[in-house]
Specification:
Layout: H1 3-18, H2 21-46, E1 55-59, H3 65-71, E2 76-78, H4 84-93, E3 98-102, H5 104-108, E4 115-117, H6 122-144, H7 149-156, E5 164-166, E6 172-174, H8 177-211, H9 214-219, H10 224-265, H11 268-280, H12 294-320, H13 329-351, H14 356-363, H15 368-378, H16 383-411, H17 421-429
Parallel strand pairs: 1-2, 1-3
Antiparallel strand pairs: 3-4, 5-6
């Protein structure tokens, strides 16, 4: 292989795409879009909802309605004296969100309560009403059982559980499993999207050059394997450039936004509201984001490019065997299937990174780029597993590169009709 020729193809592939309007637009707009999405999401989380509801309580026992109304006077009202028809009319007219009838059977026989309502309020309404009714009914049962105040307090106690991680050196450290699980999922998702995006770049580029007959001119001076290698390295350089610009831009915008965010959070009520909203949504606030180890970043880069090279050679082979993007659909299934399987295994890895499915999936070369980086971020993966996954991916890449080169060599000069699996099998036997 002539690496000078490879470098020329790399340079051409890189400069052609980096100057394109699509690349420039995506590079500029994606960071802005990400910032906007997270900004809107942040506002949605902390925004105080002004939606209110009013549920009527029909207390046939005469013992619990006052406790319910005292719990939330703005949300509950005593409508025991009203008839059912009147309550239904009030719900239909919007004067009442709904009503609940409480009888002795609900308290003594644990019969389920029924909420008759307009359907507004969503899950928040249903969850709040269920919680309030359970608490009040439980308190009434304890009161009737003549349980002391101390026992009632025991029933109302909610013990939290804080976690700390014990390292291999015997030291305790803050447990950041929740954050690292999100980070691992994000890294796996980035690799998943990147494989499709940049692999698609190569496939579309091969199809375009083939349809324009440019490939005939190129192959007259460059070997197919050199052309394939140059294309893969060129798009890899493009990916490195684009992701680097995105990272720098997002970090820069984040640093510029930090003073504004600090001023916004300087208000005590706002800070408290943000903390409560983040806790309810199980989202760590900014001050609690832990540091990311350098090794995780290095492993991400390794698995990112190994995954890219592994699949990009296959995307190029598919592009060489087709005359248009439409014709690639029948050939894409063997490539897309393992990517999506890895995507689904990634969810299992987030839930249980040391489970048998996650461990085996992270060692399978076609799944490793997505699954292994997820496990590394969340759990302490043994080094031998990481090394084995990298080794198997390199061996598999050599094999796929050899197969793709044989397909590419014949496919790029085949015109007239798209090749099928039988044609590809013949090309491999040549």
């Amino acid at each position: 292989m002539n690496w000078r020729q490879v470098s020329l193809v790399l340079k051409r592939e890189y400069l052609t795409r980096v100057r394109s309007k699509g690349f420039i637009a995506a590079t500029l707009l994606v960071p802005i879009g990400i910032i906007a999405i997270y900004g809107i999401g942040f506002l949605v989380i902390i925004w105080e909802s002004d939606v209110s509801y009013e549920v009527g309580i029909v207390d046939r026992t005469g013992t619990v309605v006052n406790q319910i109304v005292e719990r939330s006077p703005d949300s509950y009202t005593d409508v025991t004296d009203l008839q059912v028809d009147s309550l239904r009319s009030m719900i239909q007219s919007g004067d009442l969100t709904g009503y609940i009838t409480i009888t002795e059977e609900n308290i003594e026989e644990n019969k389920s309560l029924e909420l008759i309502y307009s359907g507004s309020g969503g899950l928040t309404l249903l969850s709040t009403v269920r919680s309030d009714m359970r608490d009040v009914i439980r308190e009434e049962k304890l009161r009737r059982a003549d349980v002391s105040d101390d026992i009632q307090q025991i029933f109302e106690t909610r013990i939290g559980v804080e976690t700390r991680r014990l390292t291999e050196t015997g030291e305790e450290e803050e447990d950041d499993t929740a954050f690292m699980s999100g980070l691992g999922f994000a890294m796996g998702l980035i690799i998943f999207v990147a494989i499709f995006s940049y692999g698609g770049y190569i496939m579309r580029g091969v199809i375009e050059e083939k349809s324009n007959r440019i490939i005939e001119v190129i192959t007259s001076s460059v070997k197919p394997i050199e052309l394939l290698t140059g294309k893969m390295l060129g798009v890899a350089s493009l990916a490195l450039t684009q992701i680097g610009i995105w990272a720098i831009t997002i970090i820069g915008l984040g640093l510029l936004a930090a003073p504004l965010l600090g001023a916004f959070l300087s208000d005590a009520n706002t800070e408290q509201m943000m903390g409560e909203a983040a806790a309810q949504a199980d989202i760590p606030i900014l001050s609690e984001i832990p540091a990311i180890e350098t090794s995780i970043v290095i492993y991400f880069i390794i698995f990112f490019f190994l995954g890219y090279f592994l699949y990009s050679s296959l995307f190029a082979a598919v592009g060489s065997a087709a005359d248009s993007e439409t014709d690639t659909q029948q050939l894409m299934l063997p490539i897309m299937a393992p990517i999506f399987i890895a995507y689904f295994i990634m969810f299992q890895a987030v839930r249980n990174p040391d489970g048998i499915i996650a461990v085996i999936g992270s060692l399978v070369p076609f799944f490793s780029p997505i699954v292994m980086i997820t496990r590394i971020a969340i759990s302490d993966v043994p080094f031998w597993e990481i090394a084995l996954a990298i080794f198997l991916m390199i061996i598999t890449f050599i094999g796929t590169m050899w197969l793709s080169a044989k397909i590419y060599k014949v496919g790029i000069l085949s015109y007239g009709s798209s090749a099928g699996f039988k044609d590809i099998y013949k090309w491999l036997k040549q």
